[in-house]
Amino acid sequence: MEETGTIDIKTINEKIEKESAFIDLLTLEMNKVIVGQKYMVERLLIGLLGQGHILLEGVPGLAKTLAINTLSQAVSGSFSRVQFTPDLLPADVVGTLIYNMKENDFKIKKGPIFANFVLADEINRAPAKVQSALLEAMQEKQVTIGDETFKLDRPFLVMATQNPIEQEGTYPLPEAQVDRFMLKTVIDYPTIQDEQLIIRANLKGGFEKVNSVVSVEQILRAQQVVREVYMDEKIEKYILDIIFATRFPEKYKLSDLKPLISFGASPRGSINLALAAKCYAFIKRRGYVIPEDVRAVVHDVLRHRIGITYEAEAENITSVDIINKIVNEIEVP
């Protein structure tokens, strides 16, 4: 039995190595334009391979828009950008019916959501009904206009950005809606060396041209293959321990966290943590998941899925501090 297991892993490993060859090409192409934001690029790829969506938080000017635009160029996919504003309507995102006087009939005008890569810029600037129209499309992968339902193009990746500084005139995303994002990634400033390169490239008059190096078909195939990455039962148990420790910390010798957590991660959290770990292994061109893969993605998968109490806020404790404590306590397989 052991032997067949090993042979299987060997076969999976070879298959993954072959199928993930394009990752290097894609990263290389994106690095022509995106300087130093390796973490963000990796997270975008995890979202793309895991058929999930990403919420990016960071101050303006950290190449969030540029990153998803570059990715769409490298993958020969369509790209659209929606700038969320307080006067935006759901129809501005998904599309609407327009009356055609000549034909005395209504014609469907599709919105910017009909693209492979959709950038929802400053999602917290738009009212709840616009946010929910977008989030419904993200969840169902389809849109209804009038009485017609349209399937969205595949692959379909929504990258929403949030500015953490300005809170005036914003509509924070409700917890239930934030949960629909596979990852929430917080981006920091580039290093001094990277910023030097950014200045040089911009003063030189722009970056190199990004070529289309991966086909949409390759991405769709990779999305299927990612799910074949082998995950041992011990790793599954490790993921479940982490998730359950956010719900019942006292059962994991973490009683001090009980008054700090208002609600723990949902089952969507455990599904996404397992899937993101598989995607991370795939990016690292490995056919099996190791505990390090789980630890590499755990912050992005869980930081928006753990509610903190007023007590935690008063003590300046964030969901990241809680995740760190849990990850350090839970036994690694």
Structural commentary:
It contains 14 helices and 11 strands. It is α/β, with parallel strands linked by helices. The chain has helices at 2-19, 21-31, 38-49, 64-74, 90-94, 128-140, 175-178, 192-203, 216-226, 233-247, 267-283, 291-302, 310-314, 319-329, and strands at residues 54-57, 79-83, 95-100, 105-110, 117-121, 142-145, 148-151, 157-162, 183-186, 261-263, 307-308. The protein is 47% helix and 15% strand. The chain has 2 domains: 22-220, P-loop containing nucleotide triphosphate hydrolases (Rossmann fold), CATH 3.40.50; 230-329, Magnesium chelatase subunit I, C-Terminal domain (Helicase, Ruva Protein, domain 3, Orthogonal Bundle). A hairpin with a 2-residue loop joins β6 (142-145) and β7. α11 (267-283) crosses α12 (291-302) and α12 (291-302) packs antiparallel against α14. The two termini are 21 Å apart. The strands form 4 sheets. The protein has a 5-stranded parallel β-sheet.
